[in-house]
Amino acid sequence: MSRESWVLVVLAAVLAAAMLAGAVLLAIRVVRTRRMLGALGAGGKVAFYGALIYTILPVDLLPDPIYLDDMGVLAGALFYLGRLVAKHRAEQRAAGESPVATLPPGAAPRR
What is the pLDDT of residues 20-30, one digit of tens each? Predict the structure, then answer.
C-alpha cells in the first residue's frame, strides 16, 4: 500500500472511533433521563426505548461503521426528552410543587 492509502485508512479509523464515541456519549445522556420516564408519559417512554433499541439493533439506515444515523436518533430523542422534562417542570412550578421527579403512590425509589 502506498503512503496515501495508509493515511486514508488511518483517517477513516479515527473518524469511525470518533463517531462511536459520540454515539456512546449520547446513549449515556439518554439513559440518564430514565429516572424521569414515569413523569414524562408514554411519549417519553417510546422515545427513550425506541432510541436505545434503534441504536443497539444491527438494522440501520446506514451500515454500522457509520454511526451518524444512530447519533441522529439519539440526539433527537434527547432533544424530545429534554423538552418533555422542561414542560413537566413548568407544569409543576405552576401547580406549586417541587420540580424534582415525583414517584407514583406506593412506588419505592430506585437504588
Answer: 888 888 888 88
pLDDT on residue 110: 52
**Domain segments of the chain as ranges:** 3-95
Where is 89: in which H helix or E strand?
helix 68-95
Cell (9 digits) for 3: 503512503
CB 29 within 8 A of CB 73: no
Q: At what angle do helices 37-56 and 3-32 cross, to 10 degrees?
A: 160
How far are the Cα atoms of 6, 65, 96 from residue 10, in angstroms, in the given order?
6, 14, 56
User: 23-57 burial by CB neighbour count: b if 16+ within 10 A, else e?
Assistant: beebbeebeebeebbebbeeebeebbeebbebbee
Q: How far apart are CA 27 and CA 110, in angstroms?
A: 20
- Condensed to tens digits (0 to 9), the pLDDT of residues 48-67 reads 888 888 888 877 776 766 77
